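TICKET #2291
ISSUE: user wants both folds in one file
ATTACHMENT 1:
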Amino acid sequence: MIQLFKNRRNVLGGLGGLAIVAVGVPLALPRWSDDELRQARQLQSAMYDVLAAIGLVNRFGGALAPEATAQVQALYEKAAEAAGHVDDTVLAKVHEDLPAVWRDKFRKSTDSYIAAMKMRDRDEARRASILQDDWIRWYNQNKPAMNLPP
């Protein structure tokens, strides 16, 4: 009989530990206000639009026809608009290094691509490409450490 109660105490103690973990984990995760959630969605939208633009460029290959250029430019402009609605506090909540990388790589490459398409400037497009490659490399290396809201 005593053995039975010892096992129950261990089981109950184990369940209590699980309950503490289940309650404690959500408390340890960052909380997102409605505005921060909106900004995080803007961040994701900007990244998605750039990815879609890259996909179009890869699909069309080489020099783009005017209508393809317009489609790609529209995606980059949409990405730039969304990216401008995300402030540094939200970026830092996602990853501590993201504010600087977002500004210096993502935003600059997006703006450079827009300028390159408007001016038909291949040198500007090359600069944008280098920045974009830097952004993609950083993103791929740091994605596991990013804390995007569910």
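ATTACHMENT 2:
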Amino acid sequence: MATSKYNFVLSLPAAVLMTLGVASVATAGTKTITEETIIMKPGNKAGLQYLYAWDKNCRAVPVRFKALKSPKGRLYTVPGRFKVASSQSAECAGKSIPGKKVVFKADRNASGATVVQYRISSKNTFDDFIISRPITVRN
């Protein structure tokens, strides 16, 4: 399964550490982020993003995920554990935090371009994020 180099990481104090694509304000409290296009084969899975957050005591904070649009396939999450990098938090560096991996599975008969969208949020941030990911499915 291919995994994007982009991670979405939420941490206190109410800061969002993102290495994502272009962000723009959609409405008050909601930011839309468009990521790079993924090229994949019909029936395959692609890891789109890691979602995890923690508090000042290095305890996991839930990240909410909602699939909004996933034509030509299925968008879902799988649980996982992720190590906090020292660049993300000096206090929690090296700690393992439970989270989710966002995955898109293309339909077996899918082909052409599509865009998947999902919403993520956490009580660590004031904003919700709508992630938009272009996907090209071809043999």
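RESOLUTION: both attachments delivered.
EXTRA DETAIL ON ATTACHMENT 2: The CA atoms of residues 18 and 53 lie 12 Å apart.
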